[in-house]
Amino acid sequence: MNARLHLDDPTLLEGLATRVDAARRLLREIADDFSPAAFACSLGAEDMVLTDLIVRDQLAIDIFSLDTGRLPLETYDLIAEVKKHYGLALRLYYPRHDLVETWTRENGINAFYESVDLRKGCCFVRKVEPLQRALAGHKAWITGLRASQAATREGLPTRSFDASNGGLEKFNPLADWSEREVWAYLKQHAVPYNALHDKFYPSIGCAPCTRPITPGEDVRAGRWWWENPQSKECGLHSKRA
C-alpha cells in the first residue's frame, strides 16, 4: 500500500513529526504511570508503527499478539521478521482448544459466513477470550486503532476506561493519524510490515475473513466483506455489558 508515497512533502513530514512526538510522549507516560501496561499488536501497519516506537525508546511495555490459528502465512512471516529485525519475540496468545473444538463441532468449521452472531462467536473464541487472558494483571492496554479506519471507530478517543476487560485504561496513540502518516513513518524508518499490504490488503485479520480491496473502497471493506459496515468489529474493541 502507498507504494507511490514520496517523503518529499514538507507538509506531510511536518505533520508526521508532530504526531510522532505526541505518540512518544503518550507512550512514555503510559510506561511510567500505568505499569504494567501492554500493547496488543495486531501486526497491521499501525501496530508496526507502535512496535517501532516502543522498541526504539526501550519502553517498559509488554508487547503481545493473538494467534487465532487461522492467520495468513504472510502474518506468520512478519512475526518471524519482527524477531529478526528487533530481536523481539512476540508473546503469542492462542485460543483455548476446548472452546475451538466445541464451537466448530456445534457450528461447523466456516460457520462465521452464515450470520453475524456466528461470526462474532468465532471471534470471541479465537480473539476476545485470549485477549482477556493477555490483559489480566495489567493496568492499561494500547492499540493501533485510528478514528478514520471505519464507521465503527468515528470519534475514537485517545484514552478511555475499559470496563469490559477487567477495568483498565485503554490508549489509542494513533487515533488522529492519517493513513498517509502511518505509511510515511513506516517508509521513513524502514519498518517491516505485512507483505499483504502490497497486495491491496489495508486491513488484515484471519485469512478466511480478509480479502483485498479495490480502488475507492473503504480501508476496512476487505474485512468480513459480506456484512454491513456497522457490524465490522470482532469484539476486541466493543463495549460489553
TrEMBL record:
Entry's cofactor comment: Binds 1 [4Fe-4S] cluster per subunit.
UniProt keyword annotation of Iron-sulfur present: yes
Family per record: Belongs to the PAPS reductase family. CysH subfamily.
Subcellular location: Cytoplasm
Domain Phosphoadenosine phosphosulphate reductase: 38-212
Cofactor(s) required, per the database record: [4Fe-4S] cluster
Pathway annotation from the record: Sulfur metabolism; hydrogen sulfide biosynthesis; sulfite from sulfate
Protein name per the record: Adenosine 5'-phosphosulfate reductase
Lineage: Bacteria, Pseudomonadati, Pseudomonadota, Betaproteobacteria, Candidatus Accumulibacter
